[in-house]
C-alpha cells in the first residue's frame, strides 16, 4: 500500500514532506497560469512582469524537490511502492516546471501583443475557455496525486482530447483571420503561440495523471488510449 507506515518515522516524514512540496509547487504553478491569462485579457503589464519574474521560483522548487528525492533514494533505498512514489514525484515536478515555462511564455506573448499599437484589441474568449479546461486538468491531476485517485486519470485523458480539439478550432480561426486581413498576421501568430502553450499545459497535466496510475498500480499507461487506461484502473 502507498500509505503504509515505516519502521523509521523519519522516512515517513521525508515522504510526507516531498508530497507536500509537490502540491505547493503545483499550487504556485496554477497561480502562474491564472495570472498569465489575467494579464493577457487585461493587458496588465505589472502582472506580466511578475509572472515572467516568478518563473525562477518554479525552477528553484523543482531543483529543491529533486534534491530531496535524491537524498531519500541514497539514504533509504526505497523499494516497491515507495520507489514508485519517488519516481512519480521526480517526473511530476519536471512536468510542473515545464507548465511554469508555458505560463511565462503566455505572459511574454501578452507583452508583445500590448507592446505596439494594434488595429484592434483581439478577443480572447476562446483562449479563456480552453485555458479554463487546461487549468481544471492540472488541478485534478494534483488532486489525484494527493488522493491517489485513479478514476481522475482517465477523465483527465478525455479532457486532453477536448483541449486538442479546441486548439485545432483556434488554429483554423486564426488562419482565417490572417487570410482575410494580412494586418492581423502578427497578432494572430502571437495568439497562436499562446494557444499552443495552453495545449501543452493540457499535455503535461495528462502526463501527471498517468504517473498517478503508475504510482498506485505499478503500470505504465503512457502512450495508451483512455479506454485502455480505464480498463487498467478497473483490473
UniProtKB/TrEMBL annotation:
<dbReference type="GO" id="GO:0005737">
    <property type="term" value="C:cytoplasm"/>
</dbReference>
<comment type="similarity">
    <text>Belongs to the PhoU family.</text>
</comment>
<keyword id="KW-0813">Transport</keyword>
<dbReference type="GO" id="GO:0045936">
    <property type="term" value="P:negative regulation of phosphate metabolic process"/>
</dbReference>
<dbReference type="InterPro" id="IPR028366">
    <property type="entry name" value="PhoU"/>
</dbReference>
<keyword id="KW-0592">Phosphate transport</keyword>
<dbReference type="Pfam" id="PF01895">
    <property type="entry name" value="PhoU"/>
</dbReference>
<dbReference type="GO" id="GO:0030643">
    <property type="term" value="P:intracellular phosphate ion homeostasis"/>
</dbReference>
<keyword id="KW-0963">Cytoplasm</keyword>
<protein>
    <recommendedName>
        <fullName>Phosphate-specific transport system accessory protein PhoU</fullName>
    </recommendedName>
</protein>
<comment type="function">
    <text>Plays a role in the regulation of phosphate uptake.</text>
</comment>
<dbReference type="InterPro" id="IPR038078">
    <property type="entry name" value="PhoU-like_sf"/>
</dbReference>
<dbReference type="GO" id="GO:0006817">
    <property type="term" value="P:phosphate ion transport"/>
</dbReference>
<feature type="domain" description="PhoU">
    <location>
        <begin position="23"/>
        <end position="109"/>
    </location>
</feature>
<comment type="subunit">
    <text>Homodimer.</text>
</comment>
<dbReference type="InterPro" id="IPR026022">
    <property type="entry name" value="PhoU_dom"/>
</dbReference>
<feature type="domain" description="PhoU">
    <location>
        <begin position="127"/>
        <end position="212"/>
    </location>
</feature>
